[in-house]
Amino acid sequence: MPPILQPLFALPLRALTWLGDQGTRAVAAIAFIAVAVPPLGALLRPYVTEAILCLLCISFMRVDLVALYGHLRRPAMIAAATAWTTIGVPLIVGLLARGSGLDSSSPGLFLALMLQAMASPMMAAPALAALIGLDATLPLVALVTATALVPFTASSFASLFLGGMLSISPLTLGLKLLGILAASLVAATAIRWMVGAKTIQRHKRPIDGFNILILLVFASAVMGDVAHDFVADPVFAIGVALLAFAVYFTLLAVTTLIFRRAGTERAFAIGLMVSQRNLGLMLAATAGALPPTTWLYFALTQFPIHLAPYLLTPIARRLTAHRHGAGAAAADSTS
Length: 335
Hints:
Elements: H1 6-21, H2 24-36, H3 38-44, H4 48-61, H5 65-72, H6 75-99, H7 102-105, H8 107-118, H9 125-131, H10 137-162, H11 170-195, H12 197-202, H13 204-223, H14 226-232, H15 234-258, H16 264-275, H17 279-286, H18 292-300, H19 302-334
């Protein structure tokens, strides 16, 4: 870079590095900023698809290929986690929601829950797991396999449960999901080839900061009307918010229990991945053509998604401390 241009880039780079260092605090603050500044949501809503593509591209770009190949040598746990998040979760949610009559009493809410269950985990989920101190390699591999399958599983479950609720056909939904994921993967591969994996790793902190800015764009676009919805019908909005938190933490708890034999820390990391559903991917695939209740639920799911890493950090620290303590004890016994 020419010396005359270095000062122009130094300040933004320092700002992004500082933002990336804020970690879970910045992720939690995003949800409140998005609600507190509604005009920001109105301004950014036209760019929600671009924000989702950018988030996916960054996540694919940062995949640790060595860790990915290493975990692929132990396929049983990966297959179990993938099957649970792509087949088990949408099937159980669909049966429970339909059995409770939600599809007839509140079609918009039923649609929201099904799109949430059908979505793949967020690409940022392993990064959030690592951010709070958990080993994120197993969730990362399961995430990659689940993301590869979701265009096919989502279209199947859309045919099974949604019927004519979507403005697009299940086949079109699957093709759009496939196109979005493929475009992001191609862009990420090109960036890795041009700049190199070592350069990406060396600039991890400013990339984290840029990722937080894109998360703000997405959250603002989705949550811009939340304040208005709470004023218009506070009881309903509070009920939907409680449901969003309940679904998030139920998925986290049930998944952790199912995979507890893999070790509590690993099970908790997989649970965090499964509970962080990529609703943005579904928004992009449906072009946002969703009922108001579905939009409201999607908006309110951002609260548990952004607050959970901050709230769960103490639990993650206890789990990692237990692992380190067990490792130290084993080392002492062999010395």
